TrEMBL record, chain A:
NCBIfam families: soxB. Signal peptide: none annotated. It catalyses: sarcosine + (6S)-5,6,7,8-tetrahydrofolate + O2 = (6R)-5,10-methylene-5,6,7,8-tetrahydrofolate + glycine + H2O2; sarcosine + O2 + H2O = formaldehyde + glycine + H2O2. This is Sarcosine oxidase subunit beta.
UniProtKB/TrEMBL annotation, chain B:
One of its GO terms (molecular function) is sarcosine oxidase activity. GO terms for biological process: tetrahydrofolate metabolic process. The lineage of its organism: Bacteria, Pseudomonadati, Pseudomonadota, Alphaproteobacteria, Rhodobacterales. Transmembrane segments: none annotated. Gene3D superfamilies: Folate-binding superfamily. It holds the Pfam family SoxD. It comes from Antarcticimicrobium luteum. It comes from the Bacteria. This is Sarcosine oxidase subunit delta.
């Protein structure tokens, strides 16, 4: 792997930039690996990366049915924050946010992390109480957040309309070290670093079956032949239920479509991320100047990667009341991704009923922010059988009633 | 846009007129059930990529609950039927078999 640096750019310029190699290899699958990760999205690649970096396990394959980072990793609205309510959530999301701070240096790949700050608007009295509570909880957890007044919101976001008739802004929960990153670059950076450690990233290789013997995993069947493994990590978001079915267990997961859209590029007008959970809309401005807008999820199961139009309309209608100046913006693109929702809106990072099979799913509408922390915890879980970051997120919690309830106070939007 | 025919009032309702109600034909477990049964009743879902049975309510219409048979991969609707049943009627199952031979779901009662 050629190290990227200013010096490398100068050196390669001497040969007219024809000498840059591929960022990662495209190998044929080997007959056997120590660990197979299914799903080369952010979470799967991060899991592989930390398996190698933290535990020295490099005989690893990451299998991907489509192309690397082509699922929800390339479809989200790239928001990074850790202002959750419950302690286990704060731990894993804050670990993740902290890892993002040095991720570009760690991976030697610019993920364009931009800690520009995230505001979650309170637009009802209930939200005011909810966010004040979250701010207190965050203070105890060591996550730096702050409850701010409407005047301070206006100072941070001059384009906002504070006194709209339906959704007045009553304050906000402000996390100054939250922000955004380039979502594709996160996947590409991890992929390049994994490949450099000797791991095989195999694209266009769909898993069609999970081979088991006596309750233990033996390997997987794929569209490119059978591959043996000691341990299997399933990290496939919306299709988790399909993979679990192959391995012979059921999940407390429902897959629904979540939508986002992006406007034509305009001059810089908003340098923070604003989320409005009451109306289920959130907005930030990309480096290209596009307004990136996230909307609501459909209420029914769907695997089509396209959502219902009326959800887009609801989101846009509400955002126009809060940001009147966007009313004349043209929208360039709209798309959907399949998100895996759990009953308590918290993820599942867990062992499964099949020995040697581990699952990382249920990130629902907010997985991008969690990529490094999730990979860190999942790698430890696979290598050692448990991890302080993931223990609370086990599958058992649905039987034991130990929910990590993020559905009301903090975790609705993402 | 999803359009379902309400089996009670006969209206072709599009989804803004309807409220989704989750997976159909769940068997209720209450006091005295094991932890596993109660967990599965509350949380475990089929979540299939393909044929699925759901509860819907004609919320902004006649207000009745009903069932729908649908494909989650193509959004094709196979039919709707009244709520007072623990399994889809024969006509619905035959309509699905005609389009998706060999389809499976979990066991019906």
């Amino acid at each position: 792997m050629k190290r990227y640096s200013a010096f490398a750019v100068a050196r390669e310029a001497l040969s007219y930039h024809t000498g840059w190699g591929r960022a990662w290899r495209a190998p044929e699958p080997k007959p056997r690996y120590d660990v197979i990760i299914v799903g080369a999205g952010g979470h799967g690649l991060a899991t592989a990366y930390y398996l190698g970096k933290n535990f020295g396990i490099t005989n690893v394959a990451v299998l991907e049915k489509g192309w690397l980072g082509g699922g929800n990793t390339g479809r989200n609205t790239t928001i990074i924050r850790s202002n959750y309510l419950q302690d286990p959530s704060a731990a894993i999301y804050e670990k993740s946010r902290a890892l993002y701070e040095n991720l570009s240096q760690d991976l030697n790949y610019n993920v364009m992390f931009s800690p520009r700050g995230v505001i979650m608007l309170a637009q009802t009295e209930h939200e005011v109480r909810g966010y004040r509570r979250t701010a207190h909880a965050n203070a105890l957890q060591g996550v730096t957040t702050e409850w701010i007044s409407p005047a301070r919101v206006k100072e941070l976001v001059p384009i906002i309309n504070l006194d709209g008739p339906r959704y007045p802004v009553l304050g906000g929960l402000w996390q100054a070290r939250g922000g955004t990153a380039r979502h594709d670059a996160v996947a590409w950076g991890y992929a390049r670093a994994c490949s450099a450690m000797g791991m095989d990233i195999i694209q266009q290789c769909e898993v069609t079956g999970v081979r088991r013997e006596g309750g233990k995993v033996m390997g997987v069947d794929t569209t490119r032949g059978a591959i043996d493994c000691d341990k299997l990590g399933i990290v496939v978001a919306g299709h988790s239920g399909v993979l679990a079915d192959m391995a012979g267990f059921r999940l407390p997961i429902e897959s629904v479509a979540l939508q986002a859209l992006v406007s034509e590029p305009i001059k810089p007008c908003m340098d923070v991320v604003v989320m409005a959970n009451t109306v289920h809309g959130y907005m930030s401005q990309s480096d290209k100047g596009e307004m990136v807008i996230g909307g609501g999820a459909d209420g029914y199961n769907n695997y089509t990667q396209r959502g219902s139009f009326h959800h887009v309309e609801e989101t846009v209608r509400a955002l126009i009341e809060t940001f009147p100046m966007i009313s004349r913006l043209k929208m360039l693109r709209q798309w959907g991704g399949i998100v895996d929702m759990t009953g308590d809106r918290s993820p599942i990072l867990s062992k499964t009923p099949v020995e040697g099979v581990f699952i990382n799913c249920g990130w629902g509408t907010g997985g991008f922010k969690a990529i490094p922390g999730s990979g860190w915890g999942m790698a430890e879980l696979i290598a050692k059988g448990h991890s302080p970051l993931t223990d609370a997120f086990s599958l058992d919690r649905f039987k034991e009633g130990r929910f990590i309830d993020e559905s009301v106070a903090a975790g609705v939007a993402h | 846009m999803l359009i379902l025919t309400c089996p009670y009032c006969g209206v072709d309702a599009e989804e803004t007129e309807l409220a989704p109600g989750g997976e159909a034909h769940l068997k209720r477990f209450g006091p005295g059930a094991s932890d596993e049964e109660f967990r599965d009743y509350l949380f475990a879902r089929e979540n299939p990529k393909g044929v699925h049975f759901e509860r819907w309510r004609h919320a902004h219409g006649c207000g009745k609950w009903f069932h729908a048979a649908r494909c989650t991969m193509t959004l094709e609707v196979f039919g709707t039927y009244p709520a007072q049943t623990t399994k889809p009627p024969k006509a619905i199952r035959e309509a699905i078999t005609a389009k998706r031979p060999g389809w499976t779901w979990r066991e019906f009662e």
